[in-house]
Amino acid sequence: MNILIVNCGSSSQSFKVYQVEDNGNPAIILSGKARNVASVTRDRSRIEYQINNSSHSLEVDLPNHRQAALICARLLREHSITIDAIGHRFVHGGTILTATTRVTPESQKLLEVCLPLAPIHNPNSYSVVRVYQEQMPNIPQFVVFDTAFHTALPWSARLYALPLNLMEENGFYKYGFHGLSYQYISSKAAILLEKPLDKIKLIMCHLGTGGSSVAAFMDGHSLETSMGYSPLPGLVMSTRCGDLDPEIVLELIRRGHSAEFISSLLNTQSGLVGLSGYSSNLAEIITAAESGNARCQDAYEVYASRLQLYIGGYFWKMNGADAILFTDDVGTNCWQLREKVCGAVENLGILLDCEKNRTAVPDQVQFIHTEASNVKIISMPTDEEGVILQEVLNALIPD
Predict the structure, then answer these.
(1) Could you tell me if 242 and 306 lie in one domain?
(2) 147 near 176, Cβ under 8 Å?
(3) What's the angle, vertex CA 272, arms to CA 270 and CA 277, rounded to 5?
(4) What tens digit of pLDDT does each residue of 206-216 get?
(5) Residue 349's CB: how many other CB atoms inside 10 A?
(6) Residue 151 CA to its chain's centroid (Å)
(7) Contact (CB, 8 A) for 70 and 34
(8) Residue 220 · residue 208 · CB < 8 Å
């Protein structure tokens, strides 16, 4: 049985085909990633993929996720790979969809209702679902929700200071995101640190080329997280503003701007690209900052400062942590950011080993703290696709 897993980020689209044997053991026979999808960056959009122990890269225009999915479907045909089921990451199910769901005419209507909840994520994932309905009309598809991991958030974290009836009537709660990633790395960390999952305290930093968030994990569940009702608040991101005084939005409304304009402004024109006026890519911004670009220097400082604030707050909230984890593309590739964030907090018992940090291999788990550190610092690749695969297998072959 071959299962295709598709993971849409805001500016990327990962895909993997798992060949699952009768004993349940999966083997990856094709994997790849579309990069810089609908992005403002100095780098070209491209699709990188691996098959039969060989690597390939296609420089192609990727104005949207639909185009990336069409190229992936073409690759499957070219390599004669048949698909038996498809699993998708779907960022936000709100209160409507809270568990893995098979795509049917009925559930598809519910997915459409959820599209506005994550305006630069859900429509992308939905467009890819539609591509595979067209390309592989008889293949079952499933959606797995990022918000599911955070369903155990305590009410003190979930509630906004709004009238209760307004929240209840409209579902205006904190939902949290990047749950698939957090589910994987928390379980992995518990094994590595030889602690039960319900006894470990983690600060997890999922830092992507599109979206980024931080989560505090304690007592076996998500305790706090930086994203909220939508994936917009929290950290500074590639094109998203993160935390913002609501009065700024109100002032924009008073000046006659529409909801659509403001949504586009905050989701696609802000963050690193808005601050720097140069790129949405943190690596490019750091390089430009080191060459003296003042706006890029500011963008980098704001990005790192916001991350420090969240890590510090969660450290206080949990009365310490067993480990601070850095994951996803920026988290595992950018040693400069890890050094900037963790390099001068010795009084908290957090001691970064600069040499280990600088030589850390992005696709491997790397311990980058000194022996004297009271808190482990770990660079850890995530595996959202593996979590989605397991969810699809559970749906196809229930216990």
Answers:
(1) yes
(2) yes
(3) 80
(4) 999 989 999 99
(5) 13
(6) 17
(7) no
(8) no
The CATH code of the domain that includes 253 is 3.30.420.40
The number of domains in the chain is 2
Q: What residues make up the domain containing 108?
A: 2-151
161 CB-near residues (< 8 Å, 6+ apart): none
The side-by-side arrangement of strands in the sheet containing 212-218 is 221-225, 212-218, 202-207, 323-327, 376-379, 366-367
Contact residues for 256 (Cβ-Cβ < 8 A; gap 6+): none
* Pairing outcome for strands 202-207 and 141-145: unpaired
The answer for residues whose C-beta is within 8 angstroms of residue 22's C-beta and 6 or more apart is none
Task: For 255-284, give one letter per residue: b (16+ CB within 10 A) or e.
Answer: eeeeeeeebeebbbebbbbbbbebbbbbbb
Please determine, for residue 48, whether its predicted confidence score (pLDDT) is greater than 70. yes
Question: Is 241 found in the same domain as 341?
Answer: yes
The structure tokens 């001068």 sit at 344
Strand, coil or helix: what is 86? strand
* Annotated catalytic residue within 43, 146, 298, 322: 146
Tell me if residue 322 is catalytic. no
Residues 133 and 240 occupy one common structural domain: no
Token readout for 91 is 């960022």
For residues 306 and 284, what is the distance between their CA atoms, to the nearest angstrom?
19
Phi, psi of 372 (to 5 degrees): -80, -10
Q: Are 272 and 238 in contact (CB under 8 A)?
A: yes
One domain, residues 136 and 205: no
What would the pLDDT profile of 123-147 be if each residue is shown by its tens digit? 999 999 999 999 999 999 999 999 9
Q: Which two tokens stand for residue 230?
A: 């939508």
One domain for residues 280 and 336? yes
* Domain match, 48 and 134 both: yes
Pair (103, 38) in one structural domain: yes
Q: Map tokens 């500011």 to a residue.
A: 298
Residues 6+ apart with CB under 8 A from 355: none
Residue identified by tokens 């979930």 is: 158
Q: Is the pLDDT of residue 399 over 70?
A: no
